[in-house]
Amino acid sequence: MRFASTRNKTHTVGFAHAVLNCMPDDGGLYVPCNTEDMRRWILYTDEKTSFVSIAGALTSAFIKDEFSPIVCEAIATKAFPFSPQLRKLDDTHFILELFHGPSGCHRDFGIAYLCACLETILHMQNSRATILAVSRRKFGAVLAHELRDKKHVKAVVVYPKGEVHGMNERDYAWNGGNIYPVEVDGNENDCRAFVRTIFADKEFVKENKLTVANTANIGRLLPQTFFYPFAFSRLKKDVRGDIYYALAPGNYSNVVAGLYSWCFGLPLSGFFVPVTDELSVNDTDDFVLFNTSYRHVNADPTEPSNMERLKEVFSVNKLMMRNFMYTAQIDDNETCAAVKELFDKYHILADKHTGGAYAAAQKFEPLLSEDNGVVVITAQDHPALSPDYICNVTGVTPEIPENIDNILQPATIYKPVITSPDELQAAIINFNNY
Predict the structure, then answer these.
(1) Alpha carbons within 13 A on the beta-carbon side of 29
(2) What pTM value is reported for the model?
(3) Looking at 203-290, which runs of residues are DSSP E strands?
(4) Strands 270-274 and 325-328
(5) 375 in Cβ contact with 247 (< 8 Å)
(6) What is the CA radius of gyration of the chain?
(7) Are 225 and 219 within 8 A, CB to CB?
(8) How do residues 25-54 score in pLDDT, each as one tens digit?
(9) Cβ pair 328, 382 in contact under 8 A
(10) In what order do the strands lie in the sheet with 129-134?
(11) Rounded CA separation 205/202 (Å)
(12) Long-range contact list for 65-68, CB < 8 A, 24+ apart?
């Protein structure tokens, strides 16, 4: 499979290039130039097909021109000692839990896969790379977990002062680990501004082999396509009607990944998504459109939106938008009611995002009944990550598993805070000299 920027389809690159040099110079995002028809293999899977097998087969389809099936299987095996879980709520509703990784967050899958890919690619090239990331508390802890014992890839993680969480001192660079945490004398916006400044210096990025671990990197996005074939493998035996997915919109990465899965041949009928400022509906409430507030700006290496990728998918056939994207206006009261219903009816503790997805699905119940359809509600994060919200809505406080409790614990790095992008550059250079 070849990849091209959303803004220039004439120049294509391979998977390794797209992962290592993940920010195209034209300001776009890498997307697949072509898709592999995986329908025959997807239809062959069943409830006994492991998530690792699905990931390995799809990886081989993505990058078979660059890596052997054995290498692709090894990437998947190293990345995923954990798996999603699909639970049946009733004959119409299922829930896909994506929080069974080390941090209880769906990002575990993408980060684990990206780190395994990077280590494999860099080992084969006898090279090294450094991830530069702004952390939202647990993000840095997940990186530290996945980079443990890696030989070719490490990370500089930038935090607001006092916000380092979940770190183990053995992972610090000065203790022989692969993580160099840096505190900024400012807030998260200051951290992002520093990192954007670093990535704006293309020569510095190239010299220091910098990349990112968010969904701006296609290697972080593609593993999210594995979720949907996994769910289908568990549904296909008993479901004869349409299959829909209800998602929290987030930065649209899971929606884009689901559409890519459809392009690979996965049977699915569409997505139920709460309305956002960028993704809306018209006056008749039945046609999806991109809000005029959407701006064609350069991809952000610190906080990417996959709106441009989503727009690129639909540019091939605008009518597809209507057939796949079902948006619903959901307010806070409806979300709370959905969270409470999930608990009262199914004994499911759900966070606000999962509640919003379920509320969106409820708007389209008549569509499900037309052809014995079912909906898979995507639960991205463990309820223990939203204890206050869930307790306020349901009256029940989620139990916090030990692994999640560990990543929520504050940590101290005993290093001076930095106050400028120049100091961050110096820290990166210093780290690369370890």
Answers:
(1) 30
(2) 0.94
(3) 210-211, 243-246, 270-274, 279-281, 288-290
(4) parallel
(5) no
(6) 21
(7) no
(8) 999 999 998 777 778 888 888 899 999 999
(9) no
(10) 179-184, 153-160, 129-134, 210-211
(11) 5
(12) 65/1, 65/14, 66/14, 66/15, 66/16, 67/120
